[in-house]
Design a protein that fits this description.
five-stranded mixed sheet, single chain, four-stranded antiparallel sheet, WD40/YVTN_repeat-like_dom_sf, about 280 residues, alpha+beta
Length: about 280
């Protein structure tokens, strides 16, 4: 609290303020992101202007097998996370891919790094008791095992391919890292439902229904890819402990009939021997 009398007159306005105080980002099905000047919309006579357009589809190779009449939009943007301080942008697309962009004022010629990060787990069908202790990450599933995927399956199932070699990047948001989620046994991966970036810690995290991924955007390595069952282990409140099936009435009747039949056969055998 200030000891000065109200009103306080101090401070100066910066002459070099931000030109665009308000910016709106819109995502589109063709894989593009548009930056709009929201401050211009305050005036009735002015319409919002497009400041910048980013095409994420340029990061990938053009698919030869995909027809022009196809209704699928593999480059469609689903999620956006922007850090204004570091000017880092990460987007998640319809093909379960995540792209990290960094804003640069100069043109460069660099190669985009690619990481294939699976989010899978194995279901262990062993007997689980209610007194089972927490198993911990990595024991309930095998999200870190790449040998679960066949190489042929990865080649056929992967819908997007990042362009190889150094690519010419104009000034603006330039792609630095692409995280791909490979297919599993011919099945496409789940859609990414959450995405965030933290430039202070140099981390990017995203997840879908099966699990979670954390990536170090400075070293460009995957720190964690874990399935949801690995996070809960045996203490998952939504999991049901497998139990032995209960005997139905039909099974009980069958067991009684078999016992009676066996007793009747034994009595008949005894009577035959007595007759002899």
């Amino acid at each position: 609290m200030s000891e000065r009398d109200w009103p306080i007159t101090s401070g100066t306005w910066s002459a070099q303020g931000c030109r665009y105080s308000e910016v709106i980002l819109t995502r589109h099905a063709d894989g593009s992101i548009k930056f709009w000047d929201a401050s211009a919309g305050k005036s009735a006579n002015l319409q919002r202007q497009v400041l910048y357009k980013l095409k994420t589809s340029k990061v990938f190779e053009k698919s030869k097998s995909r027809s022009t009449e196809s209704e699928d939009d593999p480059f469609a943007i689903h999620l956006i996370s922007l850090c204004p301080e570091s000017r880092k942008l990460c987007v998640a697309g319809a093909s379960s891919h995540v792209i990290l962009f960094t804003y640069k004022k100069s043109e460069c010629n660099e190669e985009v790094m690619t990481l294939e990060i699976p989010i899978v787990y194995e279901v262990i069908e062993d007997e689980i008791s209610p007194d089972c202790q927490f198993s911990g990450p990595g024991s309930a599933g095998s999200g870190n095992k790449l040998d679960l995927f066949d190489s042929d399956t990865k080649k056929e199932g992967q819908t997007l391919r990042v362009r190889n070699g150094p690519q010419k990047k104009p000034p603006g948001f330039q792609a630095q890292l692409v995280c791909l989620t490979p297919w599993n046994n011919g099945e496409p991966p789940s859609q990414i439902t959450s995405l965030t970036i933290n430039s202070s810690y140099g981390l990017m995290a995203y997840g879908d229904e099966p699990g979670l991924v954390i990536v170090d955007i400075e070293q460009r390595v995957c720190l964690l890819n874990v399935g949801s069952p690995d996070l809960y282990g045996a203490h998952d409140p939504y999991s049901r402990i497998p139990r032995s099936p209960k005997k139905t009435n039909s099974l009980r009747c069958c067991s009684r009939i078999s016992i009676r039949d066996s007793r009747g056969a034994l009595a008949l055998t005894r009577s035959v021997f007595r007759a002899k």
